[in-house]
Design goal:
alpha/beta; Rossmann fold; 5 strands; globular; P-loop_NTPase
């Protein structure tokens, strides 16, 4: 008798840098039942040769057109790996910052959704007001480079403007209102109480 492999749950946390995604990932890995693998942006950037960095972490604005053509390929590889883990029964949590503000539209989120077709995916929008983002950047030693006329550096504002487009999620959390532990608990309860997630299916329809 052939046993059917149970699919691993996939949780994708999408938000700007410093929004608190990595902290939520840590809580999920430490407290959720079962084995949870972290296949997020930081892990893939660590594997990327220096001359191609920031790789999938390339920020909005079309600044690095020399490496931009590689970014969709790197995303495809990441999502194929996520899919492979799930099919083997491993749970996966992913922290990422999706946007389409490249030199030309790349439709990476659309492609990513298609690669996880048929798998259990919870797509979570991780929000945080830009004032809190700026505080966190300062606290980690980031040099602001701002002026009185422009208190928010343009790259930071671009992230805030672009990362939640089109805004189709199964669940949204705000790390300025909830701790990372509380956000993880909201995610846990949503998985336990809600019907099958549908955001990635709706994203596929949105981009068709």
């Amino acid at each position: 008798m052939v046993q059917t492999q149970e699919l691993g749950q996939i949780i994708i946390l999408n938000g700007v840098p410093r929004s608190g995604k990595s902290s939520i990932v840590a809580v999920i890995q430490e407290t959720f039942d079962g084995l949870w693998m972290n296949l997020g942006v930081d892990r893939f950037m660590q594997m990327t040769p220096a001359r191609y960095l920031p790789g999938i972490g390339l920020r909005p604005g079309g600044e690095r057109q020399d490496i931009e053509p590689f970014v969709p390929i790197l995303y495809s590889a990441m999502y194929e790996s996520i899919a492979a883990h799930s099919r083997l029964g491993l749970n996966v949590v992913v922290d990422v910052g999706h946007h389409d503000a490249y030199a030309i539209p790349r439709r990476i989120l659309d492609d990513s959704a298609r690669r996880l077709n048929g798998l259990p995916v919870l797509f979570v929008g991780v929000h945080c007001p830009i004032e809190i983002i700026m505080e966190r950047r300062q606290n980690t030693g980031w040099k602001l480079g701002n002026t009185a006329d422009s208190p928010t550096p343009h790259p930071v504002q671009l992230w805030q403007d672009e990362v939640h487009i089109p805004g189709i999620y199964d669940l949204e959390v705000d790390t300025s209102l909830l701790s990372s532990g509380a956000c993880a608990e909201v995610i846990r309860q949503h998985l336990a109480d809600s019907p099958s997630p549908s955001a990635f299916q709706r994203l596929t329809a949105h981009y068709t």
